[in-house]
Amino acid sequence: MSGAPAPPGAAEPDPRHRPGGDPISRQIARNSILNLVGRFTQVAGWVVIAPYMLHQLGADRFGLWSLLTVISGLYMTFDLGVGSALTKFVAEYRATGDQAALRAVFSMGVILYAALGLLIVAGFALFGGRLLDLFKVTPELRPEAGRAMLVAAAVYGLLNLYMLTASVLTGLHRMDVWNRISIGVTLLQLAGVFLVLRIGGGLVALMLNTGVTLAIGALLGWLAIRRLAPEIGFDFGAFTPRLFTRLTRYSAALQVINLGVLVQFQLDKVLLGAMVSLAAVASFEFGLRVVSALWSLPSLLLPPLIPAAAHLAAVGDQERLRRLYRRASRYVLAVAFPVAAGMIAVAPALYRAWLGPGHDDAARAATALAAMLGINILTGVGSALVRGMGRPGLEARYQVIAIVLHLGFSLLLIPRFGLTGVLWALVASTSIGSLYFVWTFHRFLGEPLGSFLRGVIAPPLAAAVLGAVLGAAASGALGSGLADASRTEALIRLGLGGVLMAGATLGILLLTRFLSVGELRELFGMIRSRGITPEAARSSA
Prior knowledge:
Helices cover 80% and strands 0% of the residues. It has helices at residues 23-68, 70-77, 82-96, 99-134, 142-155, 157-171, 175-198, 203-228, 241-265, 267-275, 278-299, 305-314, 318-355, 360-376, 380-388, 393-417, 419-445, 449-475, 487-511, 517-525, 534-540. α2 packs antiparallel against α9 (241-265), α3 (82-96) packs antiparallel against α4 (99-134) and α4 packs antiparallel against α5. The radius of gyration is 23 Å and the shape is globular.
């Protein structure tokens, strides 16, 4: 991504830095595209399996299953920042050839993840009953819910080992390898869900299915690491005080960031379960799942930027970092703004076609989440860069602001407005925090904010809004055309609105030369490139 043509007025880059010009640029593009392929597998599987799960489990049990998935968020959140730290430091130390440091950071990750798993399982064993009381689980569901909660706590411990291998492979610039593993695990997990529900299994069996597939994925990831980077392994004597201090400072900031992500996407489910109903949790979950799935398109363009930024920061190439920010932002926003605007435009038709009538709350949740993410994506490229540059504190500050505002707004609005209050709290708190980060990051990077707004943000935003208006009109969202529509009619309207919206948005971006056909063709052609070796990465700098 770092090699895209410069926006008007920007300095012309060295030919070496064009999309096909160096290993880092090629691998960013390759990793980004294969990330999308891997995520598409998850999206398609969820779309197919979700209505079946809702039918087999019922609204309350489906809502309970949704709450159990919050446990995975706890593992991902309270990992002391190990996952992102591994990505950043594996990329940095491999670029500089420091094998002892590579082994040290990997060993630290294994130790911390194992300790975290034991701690969380013990916590749920001691306090699980109180959580069931908090969520107002009915007496008939309580025995199954108690067993499923303990199994989920143990099973999701494997998630961290699974994600540890993902972090290392990302640091090696080999997200293409990781996505092959992820696709296989996803297909196995979906097949297992179908079989479990087919034979009448419940929440415990669903959690066990998740555990088996995560264990398989972790094993495959470790074998890939040993093949690609045999110098990475366990070495518990490789720590030095200086390295430990650096890792803990970096990880502490990431822990705050992870907490912000948990609050952003999981707090509301907990509050709805405690203060409203499990049915409200299910509506929020359906909105979140669909929007999260579609949001993979822009968000999965970001992880490959972290090791690239870590490499460029390690060799002191500040100018290429600024170019990387501008060009990566062009691609990310050209995808993100149309996705967010499109979801807002066609949400009523989508949910009517997918789930049938009676799911207006899920459509409202999806609309609000899409609006929130459309603003939050302004932090995306900057957040990836500050992590790679070793300055995650900039991101942590805005997350603290968003956390405090989110909790305060939620406690104020939920008692009065229920699900609607949750949505307003989410959008307002995330928007304020995100805009604060954009301002501080531009000051840190020395990138003029005014020209960035005009040249990078405004064109895709205008194209997305115009395309969404056309899509909303065609899908029936602007009037009462969906009030009595059948699922088939809603599906036709959804398809028409989506095609019109996508075509109009892309046409505007091409006509205004914000994107070019040749540029897109060159980027997609990079998926045939090979991974980056340490020697190639160092020479490309």
